[in-house]
Design goal:
The structure is a homodimer of 113-residue chains. The first copy, chain A, is of the alpha+beta class. The first copy, chain A, has a domain of 78 residues: Arc Repressor Mutant, subunit A, CATH 1.10.10.10. Chain A is built from five helices and three strands; from the N terminus they run ααβαββαα. In chain A, helix 1 packs antiparallel against helix 3. The termini of chain A are far apart. At the A-B interface, helix 1 and helix 5 of A face helix 1 and helix 5 of B. Chains A, B: This is Transcriptional regulator.
Chain lengths: 113, 113
């Protein structure tokens, strides 16, 4: 397949009302995914290869997929980059205060620093 | 083995400082375990067979084990009953506000009612 005809993967995101609490909690129950979420919590948007995590690209890709399908992050493609944002406002509307409380708990965890 | 010499399973509980955030989040990422936690959140202590969940005893036993090892519940044996309590105060000391926020999120979920 030529470079120009290569189709990009369709990035599916759940609508806010489809976000499932158990999917969110599962997504947050992994240290790498939590690091991604915490990193995004203080930034507007970030390119995929620039997160402070030490995992193989395929593993990182899986973690982004879990986070995206759970409704925690939004991803879009721009030129040759995939840009990621935290869906903080939507999550806070659906589950008020929860993400903030979980991130606060993470700050108190030994592995957070 | 005679009834009187039957040894009870040792119920191990992590110390408060050993409670791991990712274990807690994983434990809460299941509907049956969430139901157990929510039920306990409004009661001081409850016998194992009396929770409003519809799963096989062996499955229920597994869920209690996950919750206990994560540090969410405490279990003790008394006569022929195993009694369970939520470690709400210890959890709140370790991760302030988190369990309350997660339970609040659950109340807003479609499956909660």
């Amino acid at each position: 397949m030529s470079r120009t005809s290569r189709r990009r993967a369709v990035l599916e995101h759940p609508a806010p009302e489809e976000i499932d609490l158990f999917d969110v909690l599962h997504a947050l129950s992994d240290p790498t995914r939590m690091t991604i979420v915490r990193t995004l919590s203080t930034e507007p948007e970030r390119a995929c290869g620039t997160f402070p995590v030490d995992v193989a690209p395929s593993t990182l890709s899986h973690h982004f997929k879990v986070l995206r399908e759970a409704g925690l992050i939004h991803q879009r493609e721009e030129a040759n980059r995939r840009l990621t944002t935290l869906r903080a406002a939507e999550l806070d509307e659906r589950f008020p205060g929860m993400l903030t409380a979980v991130l606060g708990a993470y700050e108190r965890s030994p592995g957070a620093r």
